[in-house]
Amino acid sequence: MATRSDSNRSEAVTFGFDWVSVALALGGVLLLYYVVPMVSLFLSVPAGDILARMSNPTVVDSARTSLLSASISTVVATLFGLPLAYWLARTDGAVTKAVLAAVVLPLVLPPTVGGIVLLTVFGPGSPLGEAAIAAGFPLTRSLAGVVLAQIFVASPFVVVTAKAAFESVDQTLEYASRSLGKSRLTTARRVTLPLAGPGILAGVTLAFARAIGEFGATMMLAYYPRTMPVQIWVAFIELGLDNAYPVAILLVLIAAAALLILNTVASNPWD
Questions:
Q1: Which intervals hold domain ABC transmembrane type-1 (predicted)?
Q2: pLDDT at residue 9, as a whole number
Q3: Residue 14 pLDDT more than 90?
Q4: For 56-82, b where at least 16 C-beta lie within 10 A, e where not — what string?
Q5: Which residue in 43, 53, 144, 183 is a FRET match for 105, CA 20 to 30 A apart?
Q6: How far out from the chain centre does Cα 203 lie?
Q7: Would 18 be classed as within a structural domain?
Q8: In the predicted model, what is the mean pLDDT of residues 186-210?
Q9: Cα–Cα distance for residue pair 149/222, rounded to 1 Å
Q10: Which of these ranges, 6-15, 112-121, 188-197, has the smallest mean pLDDT?
Q11: 25 within a domain of the structure (yes/no)
């Protein structure tokens, strides 16, 4: 006796409609939309010209600034983000939801708005900004400003991803460790962190990639020293599109390397 599913399947074959093929075609179009512009970028300028322009001191300085600031902001985001992520993963209620909303908010704010928000706290007209200037450590138009902008936009990736990783850890293992007399810190270090490690590293990698590509908030809060996204904008405005290609390609290569690390971590979880 034929079932209803068999009837539906036969109708699909009769009318020549294959949902799988349609889904693959739609997905293929989107994939091409991602890949074709990237390939076009690398083919827009001869490889020799790109390599020559990458040796330009301004390009080298912007790459150095981006790598240094993104590394610092990622370390700070991880140091402060992991405790917050663990607390969010192990608590529930209205306060937890409000804190999580505050963490996610920088992800949905336009980066330039994020920069304006930061200027109200760290800008020259703010008490904190004036105090920093008086101490000889300005928080705008400086490396500190770049790091502050990157932390604001990138740290949520650490918190949100680590929260999910901590939630995936079986709490009975933590309870067993505590029942054996281990402290909460020892339990976190020997049980929780190793099990949540791949997810945490994924979040750290995403935060680094987001930080190194930050533009809007950095433009508002710092501008100098120039990071790679800012240098791309300056080269485009002052010298035209061709001069922006080398830094853009370098930024794409670094982002691709970050994604390679992410995929490697995801496919090789810690023991």
A1: 63-266
A2: 53
A3: no
A4: eeebeebbebbeebbebbbebbbeebb
A5: 144
A6: 7
A7: no
A8: 87
A9: 8
A10: 6-15
A11: no
Mean model confidence pLDDT for the chain: 85
C-alpha 66/C-alpha 212 separation (Å) is: 6
Distance, in Å, from the CA atom of 81 to the CA atom of 75, rounded to the nearest integer, reads 10
Q: Return the biggest CA–CA distance within the chain.
A: 86
Which residue, 271, 197, 235, is CA-closest to 61? 235
Res. 140: pLDDT tops 80: yes
Question: Considering its fold, how many domains does the chain have in total?
Answer: 1
Other beta carbons less than 10 A from residue 135's beta carbon: 8
Closest CA to 221 of 169, 147, 127, 149: 149
Q: Are 129 and 123 in contact (CB under 8 A)?
A: yes
Amino acid sitting at position 229: P
Residue 223's domain spans which residues? 48-263
- C-alpha to C-alpha distance for 126 and 122, rounded to whole angstroms: 6
